[in-house]
Amino acid sequence: MKISPLPAAHAARLVPLLTDLHQLHVDHQPGRYIADPDEAALIQWIEQWLSAKNMHALVAESPMGALLGYVIYEVQHRPDLPIVKGGTTYVLHHIAITTAMRRMGIGKALVGAVRKAAEDAGARSLATTYAPFNAASAGLMKAMGLEPSVIYADMRF
Prior knowledge:
Strand content: 15-25%
Helix content: 25-40%
CATH topology: Aminopeptidase
Number of helices: 4
Strand order of the largest sheet: 1-2-3-4-5
Distance between the termini: 44 Å
CATH architecture: 3-Layer(aba) Sandwich
Number of domains: 1
Order of helices and strands: EHHEEEHEH
Radius of gyration: 16 Å
Shape: globular
Number of strands: 5
């Protein structure tokens, strides 16, 4: 398996895995997520998102070049505040693994690659969010040393 950066111009490669991940969210929270988003709109959105200087995507590929999984993360720089320490945080926004390849270490390898990038850059922390119904993400993050530190709650109208 090879892990490498994905340029924004190749964002279309992520759409099948993103669609699969998105459906999980639609199934559990249909009032929050849009069912069956337009593929062209998804591609445009991901390309635009990944074009930002602080956004990055890594892909895991098989020796034959098949996409096994991806991770999208952001590098955030925050100043120290009177009540909280600042610094650089790497924020993991998306991780998705091809269904047939789950539980084979691909997610750990992708999160590990983001962690290494964060450590190499002298970042203060690695952070993420995941939905309460997503036991796979919760388990992966715990296995990688990420522990819940705040609870985010919202109300939909």
